[in-house]
Design brief:
100 residues, mainly alpha, 5 helices, 71% helix
Length: 100
């Protein structure tokens, strides 16, 4: 997972070089960069879940803690769910970004 995340630097540099060298095709290279960025973000989430010792152990640990109270601008919002639901919503959010 780490190598996939670290490859974002060469992808950005190649995109920038092609964007400067061939300005008419810059939009296509930026699209490739955005796709790889979403792929790297997904790999980072999976890396975090694996690093934090399986998502089920993490969800059990999160389920035992009380919900976090939001700071002032968001104090009217409901507290976020903890545990397995929170991890599932994080996966859904990252995958929605990767698909879009």
């Amino acid at each position: 997972y780490i190598v996939r995340i670290l490859w974002i630097v060469p992808v950005y540099s190649i995109d920038s070089w092609f964007g400067l060298k061939f300005p008419s095709t810059a939009i296509y290279w930026s699209t490739v960069r955005e796709c790889y960025e979403s792929y790297a973000l997904y790999n980072f989430l999976i890396y975090l879940l694996n690093f934090l010792e399986e998502e089920y152990v993490l969800s059990e640990t999160m389920a035992t803690r009380p919900p976090v109270i939001h700071p002032v601008p968001f104090c009217c919002c409901k507290p976020w769910p903890t545990g397995r639901r929170f991890i599932r919503w994080c996966k859904v959010a990252v995958l929605q970004y990767a698909v879009i």
